[in-house]
Amino acid sequence: MMWYVVTMAVLAVVTVFCLIRSIRSKREIAPYVTNLLIWLFIPIISNTILAVSTGADVLRFCYTVYFISTTVLLYYFAQFSLEYCNFRIRHPAIGYFMTSIMGLDVVSVALNYLWGHVFTLEYVTTAEESGYVFQSLWYHKIHLLISAALWMIAVVAFSLKTIKTSKLYRDRYITILSVFLLTSLWQVFHIVSNEKIDQSIIGMCVMGVFIYIYAIEYQPQALMEEMKKTVLATISDGILFFDEERNCIYTNAAAQFQLGLGTNETSAGFEKLLALTGEDREDSANYQSKILNCTKVEDGEEYIYDIEFHKLHDLQGKLIGSFAKITDNTERTKRENLNRFLATHDKLTGIYNTDRLYDSIRETLQANPDKEFLVLASDIKEFKLVNDRYGKEFADKLLIRIADLLKEKAVSATTRYGRLGSDKFGVLIEKDNYDEETFIAAMRDVPNVGRNLVIPIIMHVGAYEIEDKSMPVSAMFDRAFIAIAGVKHDAELKVAHYEENSRDALLWDQKITEQLDNAILTGQIVPYLQAQVSRDGKVVGAEVLVRWIHPDEGFMPPGKFLGILEKNGMIGKIDQYIWECACRILRRWSFEGRNDLYLSVNISPKDFYMMDVPEVIIGLADKYELDRKRLRLEITESIMMDDIDEKLKTIDRLRDAGFIVEMDDFGSGYSSLNMLKDMPVDVLKLDMIFLKDTAKNERTKKIMSLIIDLAKSLDVPVIAEGVETIDQVDFLVKMGCDYFQGYYFARPVSLDEYEKKNLSVS
Predict the structure, then answer these.
(1) Torsion over CA of 207, 208, 214 and 218, rounded to 10 degrees?
(2) How much is the pLDDT for 165?
(3) For the chain, how are helix, strand and coil distributed in percent, rounded to 5?
(4) Residue 404: which H helix or E strand, with range?
(5) CA neighbours within 13 Å on the CB side: how many for 110?
(6) Euclidean distance between CA atoms 707 and 710, whole angstroms
(7) Which residues make beta-bridge pairs with 379?
(8) Residue 406 CB contacts under 8 Å (≥ 6 apart), including other chains
(9) Regions in the chain scoring below 50 on pLDDT
(10) Can you tell me the distance from the alpha carbon of 558 to that of 545, in angstroms, rounded to the nearest whole number?
(11) φ/ψ of residue 737, rounded to 5
């Protein structure tokens, strides 16, 4: 049996080597391999001792250790098989069951010393030799069944994985499975022949070595080659391989496209590469590595490439070949150029952005110290409303149109222009080249963007003549915009020139804007009431007007601040505050039994863009539990200048909710009768402009009479506002006017004064 002992010794050394390498491995499968090799080492030792021993006690101990170790070995082999073949035991109970069966078998075999139920040793003497012979008992059969079950788990796992996996991976599984099956047959032969020692342990050792190799050390060459081929074929960089004579032996698809190579033209790869780079064939052999940048133009398209050459040498330093990598930088270069462009240019219009315009103006002023310049700034009136009404696409076309006009008109070498943000543009122009009429004519052409407009696009332009060229460019444009602020409400295009008092006006605007919130909070904004009376002189209600009692400026009429708030969009804040003041007044009057009086409040045209007007007013009326007919709502014709359908829906919502809607300033617009036709209102308020000189102007009298008759035929009451003289009153009474408002009857007064005069009279 010496050959067996030597073989087992060699296998033990190999197993120890594999075990040490497995312990040091960082692979996830390594612990499973380690456990398997540890328990493989034990039957190697026990079988070696069995081969050289003759004593009954030693043999009994070795057989016991052998049976225990083979059970544990098969258990760990089953665990390894499931992990290696990616079959996870999802239910932990199955794992616990396997461990329990393995543990019971180990304990049962160990108890053979007490119960003698697994095996026994019988001393036999024959003509050739004498010694102890292994005799199987009843539990040995159960032990073999448990071992067979663990064996079956491993066989099934490897068999299924071999069938399912790609042929590139199949050798990893089929080799281990084959060795395991052969070893199993060898094990069966041992059991049937009842040999003293189990020679199939040699097969187990070989299987352990294969498991270590495939699980820890194995690198699938076929897979790697396939992956290399696939990666090289699909990467965007062109790859070419050359032998030592620079004959092209491989090109991937990217290189074929970049060099214009056909599928079977690989051999021409080097010549095509030289043609692209412009390199000389002889010179190209003198360098070890090189990076070239080149450009190719094909079918009008420009391609930008980086090309790397590298020579390859073996361990002795001898040339074995070379390769080239072609990187297409066309898109990256385009992106970089675009990013550089966008860093200095406006994305929408393509002209200078603010920072670049400022830098360019500074450079131009420094380069031309003897020339006189102006900066011009433009602003589109109510651009937000244009955006809302016609949509972003139209608004963008409008901005592009302005930029195109600036490009077209900027013929001087010193002219600079750019977009300052939103709808604002800036220009630097020499004073000698500036023709205001030509500039205005160009700006009037701005709305020509291929669409008929309901309202005209109005541009305002501010001009500032540069006196101090060391002033920051931003401050120059600030002055141009200050000039614009002075004409912001004008309804026609004009160029406003900066003057020092323009700055004072801007500072006043800023002061009003900044102090509004605090003024509302501290009660500086107060409601004033102007009485409205009937034909018989009875006070029936009042219009609620806004006044600002400023701590520094004193009593401020609305003309000093309402226009500013209209312009900057903050009018909604003050309107909502006055609406709520009116609701509180009406609520208190109700408690005092004065439900016979109403209040009228004004709704600014901009309120319809800043809020849901019906929702706000209905909410206030409900909050103060008002009879909604006592809160009258005054709207002007100007709200119907755009979004007519939406505005009509809004007015209908207010009337359906129970409010009385009055048309204020009737007759001040150019389409009053058309508005009267379309707009569902409950009361007409005649504008005071109609009452001027009515006693002397027969034509005006006839128009007034017709308007009042028309209103009466529509069952619409008429309030004449701005009544100042007894002659006007007599005329309006004869015409059939229903109600009056004006200085003749009462000026706007504070709430206390109004109540003292009117509520004290029963």
Answers:
(1) -120
(2) 81
(3) 55, 20, 25
(4) helix 392-409
(5) 10
(6) 5
(7) 460
(8) 351, 417, 425, 427
(9) 454, 670-671, 694-695, 762
(10) 8
(11) -65, 140
